[in-house]
Write a sequence for this structure.
């Protein structure tokens, strides 16, 4: 279905709430934009019996889950079911919108290996999918495409061998329709290198006894790239999984905080907050909705 984007639309207000911009703003000293968006969902939240800001997020999320399953619903379901269900936040980590080549992977989970979850909502086409899969398979070991149940047949007909398929059911659970196979034989160390920050690549090289020598910044970068590209794929991938999982240490802390509403789990993995910001955010989720009228 299409969403009513008029300013007074409850679904429009609910959809606007779930963005990394709102999440970061809510953790800031003066969360003007976040408060305005929260005020827009007060009627919806109060009708659902919500009393705190965290509960207001959950009420807005439930409305979207029932009536408008946008991309955020898919992302949050994947994070909740995989990170908090199949694994644990202490052993698995997620990065949202991770650049992989010229594409941005919706959700990538690192838990001893790397897995992309590429989302195609009912409003998305499959036009970009071939190029996305081409970018992903040389950088990530496993790939799933995630669709609603009614698009299973259409998606299955378009997926190449080796790509997995998951369906988001009407009850909010995930069903694995088809398991993926490993891309290890297709992966390339030089492509994995481009996913990493320079400090992360150096960390990986050092653990394998490789130490760049050049003092010139430009020459040093080329030396790091050359050394990393010469690694065998298994070592390059193992190192990348470890450093990318470690990248989200601060994210994991707030994602596991008891005050974080379940509806905001994917938001927690969409932006990195300072320790002060994370503490501020946690306290604000516990505030009563009434505080919004006085802020």
């Amino acid at each position: 279905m299409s969403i009513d984007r008029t300013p007074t639309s409850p679904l429009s207000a609910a959809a606007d709430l779930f963005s990394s911009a709102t999440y970061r703003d809510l953790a800031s000293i003066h969360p003007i934009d976040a408060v305005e968006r929260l005020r827009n969902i007060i009627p919806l939240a109060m009708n659902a019996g919500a009393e705190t800001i965290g509960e207001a997020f959950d009420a807005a999320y439930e409305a979207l889950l029932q009536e408008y399953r946008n991309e955020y619903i898919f992302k949050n379901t994947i994070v909740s079911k995989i990170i908090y269900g199949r694994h644990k936040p202490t052993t698995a980590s997620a990065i949202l919108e991770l650049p992989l080549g010229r594409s941005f992977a919706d959700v990538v989970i690192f838990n001893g290996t790397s897995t992309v979850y590429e989302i195609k909502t009912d409003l998305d086409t499959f036009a970009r999918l071939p190029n996305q899969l081409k970018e992903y398979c040389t950088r990530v070991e496993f790939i799933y495409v995630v669709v609603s149940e009614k698009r299973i047949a259409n998606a299955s007909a378009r997926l190449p061998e080796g790509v997995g398929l998951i369906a988001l059911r009407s009850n909010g659970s995930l069903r694995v329709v088809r398991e993926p196979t490993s891309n290890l034989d297709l992966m390339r160390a030089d492509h994995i290198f481009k996913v990493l920050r320079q400090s992360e690549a150096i960390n990986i090289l050092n653990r394998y006894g490789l130490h760049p020598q050049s003092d010139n910044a430009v020459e040093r970068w080329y030396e790091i790239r050359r050394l990393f590209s010469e690694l065998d794929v298994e070592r390059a991938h193992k190192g990348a999984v470890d450093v990318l999982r470690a990248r989200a240490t601060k994210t994991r802390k707030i994602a596991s905080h008891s005050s974080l509403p379940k509806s905001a789990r994917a938001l927690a993995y969409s932006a990195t907050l300072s320790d002060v910001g994370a503490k501020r955010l946690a306290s604000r989720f516990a505030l009563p909705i009434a505080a919004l009228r006085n802020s």
About this structure: The CA atoms of residues 162 and 181 lie 5 Å apart.
